[in-house]
Amino acid sequence: MANVAVIGAQWGDEGKGKIVDWLSARADVVARFQGGHNAGHTLVIDGTVYKLHALPSGVVRPGTRSVIGNGVVLDPWHLVQEIATLRGQGVEITPETLTVAENAVLILPLHGELDRAREAAANPGTKIGTTGRGIGPAYEDKVGRRAVRVADLADPATLEARVDRALTHHDALRRGLGMEPVDRAALLDALNGIAAEILPFAGPVWKELRDARRAGKRILFEGAQGALLDVDFGTYPFVTSSNVIAGQAATGTGMGPGAVGFVLGIVKAYTTRVGEGPFPTELHDADGERLGVQGHEFGTTTGRKRRCGWFDAVLVRQTCATSGVTGIALTKLDVLDGFETIRICTGYELDGETLDHLPIAAEAQARCEPIYEEMPGWSDSTAGARSWADLPGEAVKYVRRIEELIDCPVSMLSTSPERDDTILVTDPFAG
């Protein structure tokens, strides 16, 4: 029996929510290990749609424990609102079902204000495409050792000291951006007001997970965004503010790397991206528009239209390597139904050379031209297929070709947003 870490192996939006929910039927604990509420997971269960941003996907499953790890930056006001929304949908969320790491960093209103102000002031071509929710500035305060953490809410004197240290930095930044200084009293009032709603959930997540592992319980580690947005291995600087790759599952929950086990990379059968940054296979034609329409490609969190393109095997092979992916879950195969011809990127052309990986320099990334391999499409529907026998022959060939090109096997195949429309090849929890 193995624990399982689930990561997005592209630029996010690969359908992690459904896969995590599908796997959570086998898990005892679901642990979110990085990111903030800039992530969005949509779950469809028995016809009911749940939209999650900060909470682990396991919260919608009765009997499954959920934890938010120390690698997450947490907006406490958003968390309270999200809990209330799910409770309104009949989901029970209590300190008996959810634990928030007491050493998790809080996203404060000043973080969102700074995030939006800096993006607005950025010169054309240098905008990151941030959601403006304060995630980046919160991570900056964490590494700058001036953050307010969940545990600080329990002691007013400590909280004041943490806020004062943060304001020394932020007020100077705000002056440079022409912003008013932070209203210290209002911020402290807001934090003291939210404390009573957050502290009942606070606890030592590392200890809870250690005890669960010792008891032989199955742990599902859930990431946000995608590996191509990793702050080290993504398309920097057009990335998120945290490490997204599977190694962060250990650091972001307080467990050793040996606890992670099976790494499942979620991969869409084509490629999408939200926000700025290089995208070698992006389509600006009718095929790209068709992918977006058939795939309903709008962000769960922001509603922003996603950029669409053909499957990029170079990038997925790269992220499978940097995350140590054991097997992939291929999603949204049904979106390709009806295409007469399907293309797969197998390499890049740059300055007369053929590359089998994406170069690290942003300028070089932007100039990479995809090298395509064409495959025949299929006219029959793959939507709702639950076995290989339900798939058209050309769809099976497409999946097998992806496996060859990314050097990684398909462990699961998702054919619709419904949880049970899944073909299981290898059960990740079986190790």
List keywords for this structure.
ten-stranded mixed beta sheet, alpha/beta, 431 residues, four-stranded mixed beta sheet, 20 strands, single chain
Mean pLDDT across the residues is: 93
Round the Cα radius of gyration to an integer and report it: 22 Å
How is the quaternary structure best described?
single chain
Share of residues in helices: 25-40%
The fraction of residues assigned to DSSP E strands is 15-25%
The total of helices stands at: 12
What ranges have pLDDT less than 50 throughout 5 or more consecutive residues? none
Biggest sheet record: 10 strands, mixed
Q: What general outline do the C-alpha atoms trace?
A: globular
Strand order of the largest sheet: 9-7-5-2-10-1-11-15-19-20
- Structural class from helices and strands? alpha/beta
How many strands appear in the DSSP assignment?
Answer: 20
Distance between the termini: 5 Å
Describe the protein in words:
- The structure is a single chain.
- With 431 residues, this protein is α/β, with parallel strands linked by helices.
- The protein is 31% helix and 20% strand.
- It contains 12 helices and 20 strands.
- It has helices spanning 16-24, 76-88, 109-121, 135-143, 156-176, 184-198, 205-214, 248-251, 286-294, 313-322, 362-367, 393-406, and strands at 4-8, 29-32, 41-45, 48-52, 65-68, 73-74, 98-101, 105-106, 202-203, 219-222, 262-268, 271-273, 307-309, 311-312, 327-331, 341-350, 353-355, 369-376, 410-414, 422-424.
- Strand 19 and strand 20 (422-424) form a beta hairpin.
- Helix 3 packs across helix 4 and helix 5 (156-176) packs across helix 6 (184-198).
- The protein is globular and about 65 Å long.
- The N and C termini lie close together (5 Å).
- The mean pLDDT is 93.
